[in-house]
């Protein structure tokens, strides 16, 4: 079946104080994909540490005045994930990835550690898509054997936090001049072999929307991506090397 060649199950990983545009920009492109092609059996699972609504602000923010936030209700938890195979892991970034209080992001790293240690889940995985500092969450997670998931792998992240990424995770081949980076990720298996998946890491916040168009173009075809951009009246950046927010090291 032609559908067997397409990624159909996206799993969004959420944590307190995620960045709204990291999530909603790419999601709206995928929403439009489903609306334009209703027979395409796309599925979205939303995973978080608990079944409680996940906010765009940290629970410990202590901000004055009423909260200005948005919340998303998970469909699953990290300890009770969807039974269906996941095709693409979608990991956004946000302030919660950089908090000194690791309670926001540590459950994500723990979930990813367990996911990448699960041979069945890994063998079904087709790709990983990170936005902004979501790449830090992936880099903090461990493959079988204890190696960092992005050690030696080309990736990018939010340019405002780029030097911090270099300091915290120097084993990653961080790209300072990239709107997004497309490469392959070799995930070790207990058998001693590896399973290779596609990896897209994007720069900060709005770059995630350009990045998801790159995913759609590669997986569903350039004409499909072009049509979605027209429907959304979105002026895409199609060259991953054109990065107006690049940093000089």
TrEMBL record:
It comes from the Eukaryota. Keywords: Glutamine amidotransferase, Signal. It comes from Macrolepiota fuliginosa MF-IS2. This is Class I glutamine amidotransferase-like protein. Residues 1-20 form the signal peptide.
């Amino acid at each position: 079946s032609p559908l067997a060649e397409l990624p159909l199950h996206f799993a969004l990983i959420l944590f307190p104080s995620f960045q709204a545009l990291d999530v909603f920009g790419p999601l709206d492109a995928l929403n439009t994909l489903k609306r334009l092609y209703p027979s395409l059996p796309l599925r979205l699972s939303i995973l978080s540490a608990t079944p409680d609504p996940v906010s765009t602000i940290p629970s410990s923010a202590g901000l004055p005045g009423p909260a200005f936030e948005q919340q998303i209700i998970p469909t699953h938890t990290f300890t009770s994930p969807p039974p269906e195979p996941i095709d693409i892991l979608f990991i956004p970034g946000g302030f919660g990835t950089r908090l000194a209080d690791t309670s926001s992001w540590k459950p994500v790293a723990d979930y990813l550690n367990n996911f990448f240690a699960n041979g069945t889940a890994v063998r079904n995985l087709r790709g990983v898509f990170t936005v902004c500092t979501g790449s830090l969450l992936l880099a903090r997670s461990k493959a079988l054997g204890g190696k960092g998931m992005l050690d030696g792998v080309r990736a990018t992240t939010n340019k405002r936090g780029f030097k911090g990424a270099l300091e915290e995770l120097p084993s990653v081949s961080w790209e300072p001049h990239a709107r997004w980076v497309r490469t392959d990720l070799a995930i070790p298996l207990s058998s001693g072999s590896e399973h290779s998946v596609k990896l897209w890491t994007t720069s900060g916040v709005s770059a995630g929307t350009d990045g998801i168009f790159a995913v759609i173009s590669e997986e569903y075809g350039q004409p499909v991506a072009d049509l979605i951009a027209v429907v959304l009246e979105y002026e895409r950046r199609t060259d991953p090397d054109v990065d107006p927010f690049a940093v000089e090291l």
